[in-house]
Design a protein that fits this description.
Elements: H1 2-11, E1 44-48, H2 59-72, E2 76-80, H3 87-95, E3 102-106, H4 110-115, H5 123-128, H6 131-134, H7 137-141, E4 144-145, E5 148-149, E6 151-158, E7 160-164, H8 165-170, H9 186-200, H10 213-224, E8 230-233, E9 236-239, H11 244-258, H12 271-279, E10 285-288, H13 294-300, E11 307-310, E12 319-330, H14 336-348, H15 357-372, H16 388-401, H17 410-414, E13 418-422, H18 428-444, H19 450-464
Parallel strand pairs: 1-2, 12-13
Antiparallel strand pairs: 3-12, 4-5, 6-12, 7-10, 7-11, 8-9
Helix pairs in contact: 1-16, 10-11, 10-18, 12-13, 15-16, 18-19
Length: about 475
């Protein structure tokens, strides 16, 4: 089991380098009543954006962590905040000072947030708590600027393919160990999807087209065909995703609909629709990361044993998987006390670099809770750490709580022969949005021209974003 994590960390070496006013969450973060906390000290109110909603089955665990943190810090009050990062809502909240003191976002966003002045400089705390030396340097670069650190990498993923074992069984596509016969190339994937559609009547493959998710998943295919998206030429950024290689990749996606007919009938879908179709045995395959496995189980009562994952298939230029991840940042109006509270929270939930039993307890509680909820436990994406002691300690916990047949997941975790690439550095979410429209066009119009669509999308992205990039 230890081999899984070390292999993932080895792959990280291939990664490319990649002022708001105070509002209700107040920069001071303290109560005006000196007697508000024990000992007469001022109470620190910490608005914690790292929270789950009431319907999430992990809520009792989060409430227990809240109680623990408050009991250990009598002057601290943790206020749950349910804000989920969204490119459409972030700017208004940031400008009005209404961001949580600590909030979650994804690796495509730090540059924009930092440049706009909405993130607190947390370099001092990263050094104080040892994150600066323990976090993978490639991840740390994504949250740094001019020698200062503005975010805490939380988790990483690389794209793979997941499989509905029931549908593969119905189609006669399991090996003698009961493991799906994983397609090794994108051509094999289309052919496998066609067999499943012909033998079961169910969709062979799911591909989202909304909420920036179509463009995001298209990138993994396009890279495997040799396409590029953003390129620096003489110090300026150029949109180059209307190349012959990108056109070929888009034609592949179009063929999934019009040549192979292996997609669901409704192609205007997002990943939540995918969870439902996958979890109710209506679709056999789709791009995925390990953290998605909980959704079909939680929401659609899918058996955890009805899931498998493999590494990404190969295109004409090899196997390339998109790498991304999640991180935490602090609002620019967060006080030093609130930032300290955030780092204490991270330790309580088991996401700090510390390896003492108390620090590992949060992770163990999370794994035990997931296992009790019958979720897939013991498999994971990339970790943000480089210190061997932390990795070994986490390996032991993952192995202790594994509740699935690892043969169904081993191909993904080994990730042999796969190059993992970070998301594009300039306006990646806006790039995905533009590509969504392109993908919708080729999947709803049999006569759509991939070359013409990409020419227009690249020109628009150049004008609207790259020409303005600094």
């Amino acid at each position: 089991m230890k081999k899984r994590l070390m292999a993932g960390l080895g792959l990280m070496t291939v990664l490319a380098t990649a002022a708001a006013c105070s509002g209700n969450n107040g920069a001071s973060g303290t109560s005006n009543d000196p007697s508000a906390a024990a000992g007469g000290t001022k109470q620190v109110v910490f608005h914690n954006g790292d929270w789950v909603k009431d319907e999430d089955k992990r809520l009792p665990q989060f409430n227990a962590w809240k109680q623990k943190l408050e009991s250990e810090n009598p002057n601290l009050k943790v206020v749950p905040d349910y804000y989920a990062y969204d490119v459409n809502t972030f700017l208004p909240k940031a400008e009005s000072g209404q961001l949580p003191n600590m909030f979650n976002t994804v690796f495509t966003e730090p540059t924009k947030i930092i440049n706009a002045g909405y993130a607190a400089d947390i370099t001092e705390y990263m050094k104080k708590y040892g994150f600066d030396k323990a976090v993978n340097p490639d991840m740390l670069k994504l949250v740094s600027k001019d020698g200062k650190i503005y975010g805490i990498p939380d988790s990483g993923y690389y794209m793979g393919i997941w499989y509905n074992v029931n549908l593969f069984k119905q189609a006669g596509l399991l090996d003698d160990k009961g493991v799906p016969k994983f397609p090794k190339t994108y051509d094999e994937l289309a052919e496998t999807a066609k067999i499943i559609k012909d033998k079961t009547g169910k969709a062979g493959f799911f591909f989202p087209t909304k909420n920036n998710q179509g463009g995001w998943q298209f990138m993994t295919i396009a890279w495997a065909y040799g396409a590029e998206f953003e390129k620096q030429v003489d110090g300026k950024w150029k949109a180059v995703f209307n190349s012959p290689e990108a056109v070929q990749a888009l034609q592949y996606v179009k063929d999934l609909k019009w040549k192979y007919n292996v997609l669901p009938d409704n192609v205007l879908v997002n990943i939540d629709d995918g969870f439902k179709l996958f979890g109710t045995d209506q679709v056999a395959m789709g791009f995925a990361s390990t953290d998605w496995a909980k959704h079909p189980v939680n929401d659609y009562k899918m058996s955890k044993d009805n899931m498998a994952m493999s590494a990404i298939p190969a295109g004409p230029k090899g196997r390339v998987a998109l790498f991304g991840g999640n991180l935490k940042m602090f609002a620019n109006n967060a006080s030093p006390e609130q930032i300290e509270a955030g780092f204490k929270w991270i330790k309580v939930v088991g996401k700090s670099p510390d390896i003492d039993p108390e620090s590992l307890k949060g992770l163990e509680e999370q794994l035990a809770n997931d296992k009790n909820l019958n979720r897939v436990t013991g498999v994971h994406g990339l970790l943000p750490w480089v210190n061997k002691e932390k990795i070994d300690a986490m390996n032991a916990l993952y192995e202790k709580y594994t509740n699935v047949n690892i043969d169904l997941w081993k191909d993904y975790m080994d990730n042999k022969g796969v190059t993992i690439k970070p998301e594009e550095p300039i306006n990646a979410q806006e790039l995905y949005k533009g590509l969504d429209a392109v993908i919708q066009a080729v999947l709803t119009d049999k006569n759509a021209d991939p070359k013409a669509l990409l020419d227009k999308a690249a020109a628009d992205f150049q004008k609207d974003y790259l020409d303005k990039a600094k």
